Amino acid sequence: MAVYLDCAATAPVDPRVQREVMTYLGIEFGNAGSRHHGFGTRARSAVEKARVQVAAVVGATRGEIVFTSGATESNNLALLGLAEHGASTGRTHLVSTRIEHKSVLEPLQTLAGRGFEVTLVAPERGGWVHPQSILEAVREDTLLVSVMQVNNETGVIQPIGEIARLLQNHPAYLHVDAAQGFGKEIEPLRQRRIDLISISGHKIYAPKGVGALATRRRNGQRLPLTPLMHGGGQELGLRPGTLPVPLIAGLGKASELALAEHRERNAACRRFKEILLRKLRPLKPVFNGSLNRTVPQIVNLTVPGISSEEAIEAVSQVAAISNGSACTSTTDSCSHVLSAQELDEARMEGALRLSWWHRSRQPDWNGFIRAIEGIRGAEDLEDSTEVRLGQAGAA
Length: 395
Ligand code: PMP
Prior knowledge:
alpha/beta, 3-stranded antiparallel beta sheet, about 400 residues, Aspartate Aminotransferase, domain 1, about 15% strand, 7-stranded mixed beta sheet
């Protein structure tokens, strides 16, 4: 069976997380909002335990964690949720980057339609955003700066620590979409200057459909967020709705395990990456994004002369890989991330993203290379047939 190498799209659920989820799906099925019986209070304590576990990863307090359905919702809540405050205080300028996930770019577009001004900073060719470019974009009326921690297509780590430091004396709120870095790259997210952090469960071996938004207090004050939905008042009124206790308990467990094991996990991913880079050398790949700035578990590369569609199909019996972003693969358009890096068309059309986790086994790399070389061979054959037919036609 093909080895799954698309963990940046979604990752397997850790068996220990699965057990936790099953407990709250099966035995402890209470509603965390029910106050009159043990079923409710036990569900409530599972949620509060998870809140502590998530908070611990980013050095926040449990009162600063709001559970959501995933990073898409967290990004929406962070960006759209600050708009009312921005509009009422005359701070209507927003700064972000051209390489953000659509769940940041689209809410920004929505805000642009509501009278906000949005500056999108371009990345360097290596796929990282220069902290100075962010600083230069910030103005007196900037409400929010939003920069992702790790790019989901290239795996390039963004210098959010440096950005936070440069913004130390600016009042703008700083939001980080940490879907790909939470529980993996721990230290950068612990900076108190980062006000809002979006978290996704299914990238850290918890189920899909759960995430969180960390909203740090500033000088003891809650951030001036307004909710996107209205209802039962759960999650400080910021995210009403009956809490999905099994999913939240799973996210809590996954966070606890990530904090305890991230060093060994990263080491295992680095070993995987070293082998992958060595094994793929015969294909002479070019890397889309500075390799020395990438996380240990994602690589984006182009094999010259081979389109990503052909390659993904050809290797499908050996490995399940993708062309970058699962979120845009239905639109068939070139990646906005790679085009922001000003890569040429052929390189973008050949982009392959391979992403793994600490438990991934190595695929049959020789089979992988044979499959891709098979495409080249077939194309060479086609070319020579065309020449022969051309000659025959001329005769
Ligand atoms: N931001 C980034 C950087 C991501 O990689 C993803 C998932 N592809 C998201 C946001 C959306 O996360 P979720 O699937 O939890 O909504």
